[in-house]
């Protein structure tokens, strides 16, 4: 196992992003179509937040019995903006941060994704799944 490997070797660099002008229906569509659980929210190239699929689940009526799920989601999603739902107090890392350091950050916090930022520009995202896949490759 490479002890000083940079996170750039395992991060996703083709990033799907949202803007604050996008709506939560678009966010859900992106989550489902791309089979992802975290989407950075940007203003230009600068990251201003991150939206997780769990964030959407928290505001939806998951137990809406005898209701059309799509209708319920549309009503709820129109009640909130991305800025109201996204996480704003971000912890980020640079592309040269070691995978070990990233693992420590994720292990000691209650989130599962870190934006990778170089010179104030979003260049990638690394998740706990990326770390698990990296560890699996080592065996």
TrEMBL record:
**Residue stretches making up the CBS domain:** 11-69, 86-139
Task: Fetch the Pfam families from UniProt.
Answer: CBS (PF00571)
Q: Would I find Cytoplasm among this entry's keywords?
A: no
Q: Which Gene3D superfamilies match?
A: CBS-domain
Q: Please, which domain of life does this record's source organism belong to?
A: Bacteria
Keyword terms, alphabetized: CBS domain
Protein name from the UniProt record:
CBS domain-containing protein
């Amino acid at each position: 196992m490479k002890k000083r490997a940079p996170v750039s070797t395992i991060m996703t660099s083709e990033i799907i992003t949202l803007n604050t002008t996008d709506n939560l229906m678009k966010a859900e569509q992106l989550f489902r179509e791309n089979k992802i659980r975290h989407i950075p929210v940007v203003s230009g190239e600068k990251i201003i937040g991150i939206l997780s699929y769990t964030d959407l689940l928290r505001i939806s009526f998951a137990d809406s019995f005898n209701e059309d799920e799509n209708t319920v989601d549309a009503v709820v999603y129109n009640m909130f903006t991305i800025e109201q739902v996204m996480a704003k107090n971000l912890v980020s890392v640079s592309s040269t941060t070691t995978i070990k350091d990233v693992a420590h950050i994720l292990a000691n916090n209650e989130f599962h994704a870190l934006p990778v930022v170089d010179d104030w520009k979003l260049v990638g995202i690394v998740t706990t799944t990326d770390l698990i896949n990296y560890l699996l490759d080592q065996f």
